[in-house]
Amino acid sequence: xxxxxxxxxxxxxxxxxxxxxxxxxxxxxxxxxxxxxxxxxxxxxxxxxxxxxxxxxxxxxxxxxxxxxxxxxxxxxxxxxxxxxxxxxxxxxxxxxxxxxxxxxxxxxxxxxxxxxxxxxxxxxxxxxxxxxxxxxxxxxxxxxxxxxxxxxxxxxxxxxxxxxxxxxxxxxx
Length: 174
Known about the structure:
The strands form 2 sheets. A 5-stranded parallel β-sheet has the order 2-1-3-4-7. The protein has a two-stranded antiparallel sheet with strand order 5-6. By secondary structure, it is an alpha/beta fold. The protein starts with 11 loop residues before the first strand and ends with a helix. It has a single domain (12-171), classed as Rossmann fold. The longest helix is centred in the C-terminal third of the chain and has 24 residues, at 148-171. Helix 3 packs across helix 4 (83-94). Helices cover 40% and strands 14% of the residues.
């Protein structure tokens, strides 16, 4: 059995983030390559979807979530509390998919600037009759490096394991 190889599965994930504010930072994480992510929406595509209204946005999100095993919420300064981020979190949990958050405030944007750390978007949700905060169940990772490149490396080195753990955690609540 010395020739036996263990193959790692490349998971298919959905990235949830504040498009206007964090698109640049999100694209860095999406390009890490250890997972297959949803195809990035170009500015024009997203604007066209938004122009068609809430039902079109919801249908677009639902289509993007199909076939994904996990949603990664990329948490920027103003991610928490956004209507469509909340919808993506609720839909992901209801569809029994893995869910995790990564703080991306230390990654630089297109102008070379980092941002302030945002609130945990999972604080706004509770589960069951005992109202357990979702933030007590869903893990959120915070690269502790001020340096953008070190933060990127930290995310890159851990992303696959975080996804697998999120999927395992979600299975406990089926």
